[in-house]
Amino acid sequence: MIRVSTKMLYTQSVNYINSTLSKLTELNEQASSEKRINKPSDDPTGAATVLNLNTTLNSYDQYTENASTAQSWLSSSDSTLTEVSTLITSLKSLAEQGATGTMTAANRTQISYQARQIYQQLLALANTKYQSQSLYAGQDTDEDAFSQCLWMTTNSTSLASSNAFSITGGSDTTVLVKLVNSNISGDGVAMLSNCDVLYSLDGGTTYLDGSITTDPSGKITVNMPKSGTSLSFSHNSQVNISAASNSSYNDGTWMWIRPSAIYQGDDADSDATMVSAMGNGTSTISASARGAFSGNAIVRIDNTTTMNGQIDYSYSLDNGVTWVTGNSVDSDSTASNAVLDIGTGGLLTLASNGSNVLHAGTQFVIQPDTAGVDLQISSSESVQVNDVGKDIFGGLYQSPSAVLANGGSRLGVSSSNTSTVFSDSSLTYASNSSATTKNLFETVGNLVAFLETNNQTGVSQCLDSLKAAQTQITTALASVGGRENRVSTSQTILTNLTDSVTTQLSSVEDVDLTKLLTQLSQMETAYQAVLKSSSMVISHSLMDYL
Question: Which of 88, 215, 244, 265 has a CB 3.0–4.6 Å from the CB of 470, allowing a cystine?
């Protein structure tokens, strides 16, 4: 016999009520969320599966977003290059007209107005940006890919190849320069410093007198006051001259100062990684980098005193905003062939060049020769969404070493620190030349110059180069289109994978609503029954029987 006390009766009744209410609350929560698993205790194994599936879905969402961004970048590039190709077709039509023998100087001048405007349009297209980021400047996306400048074409191979020149000032029309000598009536040769200068701002219709000066360093400057420009050569040299009355571009020395564009973005011409040093004693320690660098890196020597057996260093991968500290490598004070691990697969090797000392506080800036902006579109696949503008449009280019030699500025445009992209012969003009170039900006610059100076032969030569430049643009367009198709395929795959994982997640996490509603109805009935029975039992006590 077990004695059932009133307290036990009350306690059991409350437990029954709470137990039933707890199950009812749990079913209510499932009905509200439509999820079978709302906390790990609902199904520990299932909760782990749900966590893994949600992580997978989040990564797919990020890849999908990246693919959408990549598609937008590439679509912008696609439409830009298509428009460039259309403009080149227009330029070819203009060049065909200008190369026709029946065209007069006035006709070519009229055509040149259109050609110069198309040049400006091409420059604007080459500087196209998507969401304020340049499509064709490599990783230097904050800046325009190209800037307009003046460049020179000449019929003198000696001036073009052996005498570095620079141009200052600006002009809205081609400046035509002719070297003559008042003491020579016919063709001949003379030193550059002894020449007289004639220049024209109206395509050779009228000429103005210029002058040549020589500074103490030997630099020769051709002064053309009313043109707003001057042309300097690094040294004196012998040139062909002709009579002042000679108007043949095949005789004497002629120069066309005309428009071009200089590329000011990143390049990916080699696997070289440039290292520059800052701080005390940097000239006595040489450094080289190798391995994988996704972007610029800065390495800082943290030793507070002269190194004695160990180099302490930090490195930054975000231009000095944050630093990874606490790194060290064994080395003596001369840092003899010390190898510093940058932590991203990149290595910095220091060489003492003898007994030189590595000073505390020295910083080394590592600049990898990279240009691509890549977006991850799957766990194992990325796609480049931008391009190197000079490899498409040509123009002029200053290598990073030339920029450093110029004090870190690309403003100094001269043939000593600037090269013509594709290494072609666009600097020279000759009546018997059949050379072509795929350099678009140089070709269009020359076309404008030859149209403005009524040079039928020069215009004809530009026509072949325009065809080569259009082929270059078409090749770039095919590359962009291929990447677009690749991204589109990845988007389809991501959609299918997302649907598959979502279905799998639903089978693990989602509740069976039909079954749930039945259970909910049953539990509500049970709860009502417990409340009814408990109220009947609890309402009685021993006092009722006294």
Answer: 88
